[in-house]
């Protein structure tokens, strides 16, 4: 039989007081963060959801139930915008990842002047986006731009070509500009991941006679795979919500060819002052991105499991 | 100590009194610059109102109207703003601006007050007026082997532009097609020169879906074959660069371009050529000074608006900036006003009587979208003229 110990009131009171104060202390610690999130995220989100059930404009608001959502479901233009947005996102992210991977591999190589090249990668990411896009506007100008001039000199075109004037060329021109902005960040993250790969693995493979390409494919890629997947998710969200690039280059035109969901939402809510319809679009963006993020996180979990990382 | 407290109190009180007297007016000036003629009036206004400061904010056209509307919607309206008159309907119907107090004796040109009048109420002080005409670069046209003679009809205009394209490196005509308000304005010049209308001024009925619109749109599409490359990337003001550079032989614009064109260009100004169903016409556009509700400076703002738009001040602006005269200055006793001199001004002044209005609708952005969608549709050959006009008519019904 175990010895019984009679606890005095003093003995029991002390730990209980400590437990309560720890709980309060915990709430005090997370409180400011929760308040911050409530003000910055939760309240605007709740307000957006509320407005999406209203016909709201400059003159006031009126409850219309699901009418805004019904309009969107029935709108062919909106369906096209969703498809265009995902195409824009997948194409742009894929290019960023491929170029980022190539760039990181080159910057990771032991070549003279490597530090300089690493610095030179940064400008598209560092300079203000508006300034960068004004530069691209000039590049794409048919009469005064370098690209059109070069194409004429090389005999590719026999006259000026306005990159932003046609539906397809405007869309792909915007993708190129977006890739130009987004690739440096991807490159740097991949480079950081590559530098964390153990040299022993490469040396062992080299001793076994593995080629550069084989080492890259079978050592580098698997080792940095979790970073690739994480960057894909981040880059996808940034690209999905990319607004300034499209707005400065084309404002969503011509004829809606570069209108993505975020541009459509801005045009509806802010340019046309249809706050209710704009809010419905914003809610749909949140839902789509939420679904997309959940799927991506599942993929990330599988990747981590496969490559043995946490 | 007591003395010190009293002194401190006196200083605080005097500070409060001073701040009560000091008033800051927020003046949004669309167009991205403050014109010297307006600046002079504002300085005089400040000198006459001690303690009143006018904070001028010049905002480019592309974002200016959105900014003013958003500020007003957010409960922080500017005191006064210079904006396109097309915004008046939206502002008035949403109770954001107050009625203008225009001198009933002011001799405005015909049609000008219509651009600020909604259901019999004047909501803005008209401050800038323009009619449009066709500018021809005679150097380019003569280089193509043609005489620089103003085309009177659309067919003549097209033939001239086609010859320029065939015989020179220049484009025949400059065409606007960007997602921008002046794409609609450019098209309306052709529509009004073909006897078309957008909204019946008496009944308010949508008249866009018509044969005249079809003809105008078809002609706009035809012009694309002899225009500068990719018109959907260009707005009207950017065409000035091409005109100065000899890249286009002609384009339609207002009289303010006279000051923007290079001096060494041999240019001719002519009325917009007539379409098959009408006579030469022009869009009549005004920009107005509006007084916002709820700024707390309404009376001061009215005073400033009246000064800026009064005879002498308005004349300074019109003559220095090269605007179509908004007032009949001869009726005000001015002798030999600027627009009675030279060969160019009669073209712009002559357009007043033959002009059509910029449609005044509450949702002016939707109106703009209806037009740009239709125009870009034909420029990009997305659909037939018939379908595009039918769709535009339906979309306009929704926007009205």
Automatic annotation (TrEMBL), chain A:
Coiled-coil region list: none
UniProt cross-references to CDD domains, sorted A to Z: TM_PBP2
Domain called ABC transmembrane type-1: residue spans: 82-296
Any single biological process term in GO: transmembrane transport
PROSITE patterns given in the database record: ABC_TM1
Superkingdom of source: Bacteria
TM region(s), chain numbering: 24-46, 86-107, 119-139, 170-192, 224-249, 282-303
Subcellular location: Cell membrane
Keyword entries, A-Z: Cell membrane, Membrane, Transmembrane, Transmembrane helix, Transport
PANTHER family: BLR7065 PROTEIN, SPERMIDINE_PUTRESCINE TRANSPORT SYSTEM PERMEASE PROTEIN
Name used for this protein in its record: ABC transporter permease
Organism: Thalassorhabdomicrobium marinisediminis
Organism placement in taxonomy: Bacteria, Pseudomonadati, Pseudomonadota, Alphaproteobacteria, Rhodobacterales
UniProtKB/TrEMBL annotation, chain B:
Subcellular localization, as worded in the UniProt entry: Periplasm
Pfam families registered for this protein in UniProt: SBP_bac_1
Leader sequence residues: 1-22
Key word Signal present: yes
Originating species: Thalassorhabdomicrobium marinisediminis
UniProt name for this protein: Sugar ABC transporter substrate-binding protein
Keyword Transferase: no
Major place of residence: periplasm
Entry GO terms, CC: periplasmic space
UniProt keyword terms in alphabetical order: Signal
Family: Belongs to the bacterial solute-binding protein 1 family.
PANTHER family given in the database record: ARABINOSE-BINDING PROTEIN-RELATED, DIACETYLCHITOBIOSE BINDING PROTEIN DASA
């Amino acid at each position: 039989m175990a010895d019984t110990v009679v606890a005095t009131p003093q003995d029991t009171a002390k730990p209980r007081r400590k437990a309560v104060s720890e709980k309060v202390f915990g709430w005090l610690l997370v409180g400011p963060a929760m308040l911050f999130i409530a003000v910055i995220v939760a309240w605007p989100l709740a307000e957006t959801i509320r407005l999406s059930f209203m016909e709201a404009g400059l003159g006031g608001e009126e409850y219309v139930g699901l009418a805004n959502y019904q309009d969107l479901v029935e709108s062919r233009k909106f369906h096209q915008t969703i498809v265009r947005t995902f195409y824009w996102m997948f194409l742009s992210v894929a290019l960023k990842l491929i170029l980022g991977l190539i760039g990181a591999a080159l910057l990771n190589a032991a070549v003279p002047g490597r530090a300089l090249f690493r610095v030179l990668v940064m400008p598209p990411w560092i300079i203000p986006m508006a300034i960068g896009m004004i530069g691209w506007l000039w590049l794409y100008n048919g009469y005064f731009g370098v690209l059109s001039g070069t194409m004429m000199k090389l005999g590719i075109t026999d006259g000026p070509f306005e990159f932003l004037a046609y539906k397809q060329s405007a869309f792909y021109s915007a993708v190129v500009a977006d890739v130009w902005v987004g690739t440096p960040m991807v490159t740097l993250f991949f480079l950081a991941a590559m530098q964390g790969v153990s040299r022993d693995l490469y040396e062992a493979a080299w001793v076994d006679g593995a080629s550069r390409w084989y080492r890259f494919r079978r050592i580098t890629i698997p080792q940095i795979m979790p970073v690739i997947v994480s960057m894909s998710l981040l880059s996808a969200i940034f690209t999905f919500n990319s607004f300034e690039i499209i707005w400065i280059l084309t404002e969503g035109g011509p004829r809606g060819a570069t209108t993505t969901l975020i541009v459509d939402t801005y045009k509806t809510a802010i340019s046309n002052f249809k706050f209710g319809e704009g809010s419905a679009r914003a809610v749909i963006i949140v839902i789509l991105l939420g679904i997309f993020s959940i799927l991506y996180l599942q993929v990330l979990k599988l990747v981590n499991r496969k490559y043995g990382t946490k | 100590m007591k003395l010190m407290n009293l002194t401190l109190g006196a200083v605080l009180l005097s500070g409060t009194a001073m701040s009560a007297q000091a008033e800051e007016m927020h003046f949004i000036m669309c167009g991205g610059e403050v014109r010297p003629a307006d600046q002079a009036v504002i300085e005089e206004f400040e000198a006459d109102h001690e303690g009143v400061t006018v904070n001028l904010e010049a905002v480019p056209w592309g974002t200016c109207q959105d900014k003013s509307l958003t500020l007003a919607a957010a409960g922080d309206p500017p005191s006064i703003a210079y904006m396109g008159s097309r915004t008046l309907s939206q502002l008035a119907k949403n109770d954001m601006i107050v009625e203008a107090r225009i001198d009933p004796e002011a001799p405005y040109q015909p049609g000008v007050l219509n651009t600020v009048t909604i259901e019999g109420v004047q909501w803005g002080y008209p401050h800038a007026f323009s009619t449009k005409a066709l500018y021809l670069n005679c150097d380019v046209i003569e280089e193509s082997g043609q005489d620089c003679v103003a085309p009177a009809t659309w067919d003549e205009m097209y033939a001239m532009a086609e010859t320029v394209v065939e015989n020179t490196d220049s484009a025949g005509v400059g065409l606007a097609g960007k997602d921008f308000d002046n794409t609609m304005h450019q098209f309306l010049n052709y529509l009004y020169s073909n006897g078309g209308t957008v909204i019946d001024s008496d009944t308010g009925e949508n008249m866009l879906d018509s044969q005249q619109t079809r003809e105008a749109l078809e002609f706009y599409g035809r012009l694309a074959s002899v225009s500068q490359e990719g018109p959907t990337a260009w707005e009207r003001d950017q065409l000035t660069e091409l005109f100065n550079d000899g890249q286009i032989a002609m384009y339609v614009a207002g009289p303010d371009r006279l000051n923007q064109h290079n001096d060494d260009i041999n240019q001719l100004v002519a009325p917009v050529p007539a379409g098959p169903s009408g006579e030469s016409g022009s869009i009549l556009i005004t920009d107005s000074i509006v007084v916002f509700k709820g700024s707390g400076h309404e009376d001061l703002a009215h005073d400033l608006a009246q000064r800026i738009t009064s005879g002498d001040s308005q004349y300074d602006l019109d003559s220095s900036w090269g605007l179509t005269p908004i007032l009949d200055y001869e009726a005000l006793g001015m002798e030999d006003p600027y627009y009675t001199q030279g060969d160019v001004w009669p073209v712009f002044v002559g357009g007043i009587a033959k002009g059509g209005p910029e449609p005044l609708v509450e949702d002016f952005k939707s109106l703009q979208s209806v037009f740009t969608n239709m125009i870009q549709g034909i420029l990009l050959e997305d659909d037939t003229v018939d379908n595009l006009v039918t769709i535009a008519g339906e979309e306009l019904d929704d926007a009205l």
